[in-house]
Amino acid sequence: MAATIEKELEEAKTKWQQTQQELDKTKSELHDVREELERAQSQLDEVLGELEQTHFELHQLKEKGEQQQLDSDGKVKQELAETKSKLQETEQLLEQSQSQLGETMGVLEEYQSQMEQTMGTLEESQGKLQQKQEELEQVKQESEQTKLQLQQTKIELRKLKGDYKPESIIKDLVNILQETTKEEKIDMPQNFNRGSFHQRQRITRVAEYCVETWTGDLIEIGCFKGETTKLLAEVAQKYNRRLIAVDPWEIGTQNCQGGEYETFLKNIEPYKSNVDIVRLSSLDKKAIELIKNRELCFAFVDGLYTYDACLSDIKTVDHCQGVIAVDDLLWSPEVDSAFHKGAEVTKSRKLYLPICREGYLLPNI
Question: How far is the CA of 51 from the CAs of 65, 84, 129, 163, in angstroms?
Fold first, then answer.
């Protein structure tokens, strides 16, 4: 139905554009007619001027004849005859000008009528276009509602089928991770980059799996320049969810030297309508309270590389219905210890492949 309405909308737009072109053409022709009318009026004014001058000369001749009593009647008659001839010519020219003026006025009235019809057609086309746009918007809203209902139905169906069992979730995630771990590199020159070659792709796939499996929004703690954020935001937009981005972006804190927040905003620009930015430390009480009040289906913890901070972040998102991904296990002993302790505190199952930089805490349903 949406495709049909969009097609009709395109046809209406095309018809409206054609009508607009005809209106422009009519306006141009009307402008030409008006110029011709002005020229005819100018000619008529000249003729009237000549006529008045002729009448004035005739009047002078009459006065001259009366006052001076000319001796030569022949000369007066000749002048009078010439004056009458000029008067007749002037009257003929005046009649022609009046006839041309009448014709021009008729053409002008015809163009005005055509313009009114064109304007009526244009207004009708605009009305239809507006109606199609409203119909399309309604279809889009209904489509979004249908998508949400379909997602909810899939989730309920998976519950009925028993797909929420820990064994099923582990199996699904292992399959997702295996898609990228085959090409993962652990012999990188710097420990910081080990296991991260395809990490963003893995995180994105796991996040999409969670969105398809549980209700709620996504959260990323520690966003830096937004390279991973934009991928998670794309998932959120695709499934009509929200992404909570938590980071203080404060110069002097971990890896923040200035300009990171501006780069972050540029990266998420296409998806900013689906991103809730929390510019606070994840250890801030306000941030923790805000996060605790949000329903979550996926969490990516990539905050401070300390035991206490990482464990605190895990506890902050422990109400997440889906998977909690924790970054930097492969190179940070403190984060690795916090990950294992977090699994114990939240009573979650651990999924960790040594070839990956990150680990996963799974709901123990």
Answer: 21, 11, 57, 104
Q: By C-alpha distance, which of 327, 332, 333 is closest to 352?
A: 327
Are 93 and 46 a contacting pair, CB within 8 Å?
A: no
- Looking only at the bridges linking them, the beta strands covering 359-362 and 323-326 are antiparallel
Using CA atoms of 40, 41, 46, 50 in order, give the dihedral in degrees to the nearest 10: 100
Terminal Cα distance for the chain, rounded: 41
Cα–Cα distance between 4 and 69 in angstroms, integer? Answer: 95
Multiple choice CATH, 2-157, 1.10.260, 3.30.1450, 2.60.40, 1.10.287: 1.10.287
Looking at domain 162-362, its CATH superfamily turns out to be Vaccinia Virus protein VP39 (3.40.50.150)
189-240 pLDDT, tens digit each: 555 567 778 899 999 999 999 999 999 999 999 999 999 999 999 999 999 9
List, in order, residues 6 or more apart from 60 with CB less than 8 Å away. Answer: none
pLDDT, tens digit, 9 for 90 and up, residues 66-115:
666 555 566 767 777 777 787 777 777 777 777 777 777 777 777 777 77
Position 26, amino acid: T
The pLDDT tens digits of the residues spanning 152-184 come to 665 555 555 545 577 888 899 999 988 877 766
How, if at all, do strands 243-246 and 275-278 pair? parallel
Q: Which two tokens stand for residue 88?
A: 């007749």
Instruction: Give, in degrees to the nearest 5, the angle at Cα 227 between 203 and 285.
Output: 80
For residue 292, which amino acid is it?
K
Alpha helices in 162-259 (DSSP H): 166-181, 199-213, 227-238
Given a contact cutoff of 8 angstroms between Cβ atoms, the answer to whether 236 and 308 are in contact is: no
| Collapsed DSSP state (helix, strand, coil) of residue 201 | helix
Residue type at position 239: Y
C-alpha closest to that of 204 among 298, 329, 336: 298
Sequence ranges of the domains in the chain: 2-157, 162-362
Exposure on the CB side of residue 158, measured as CA atoms within 13 A: 20
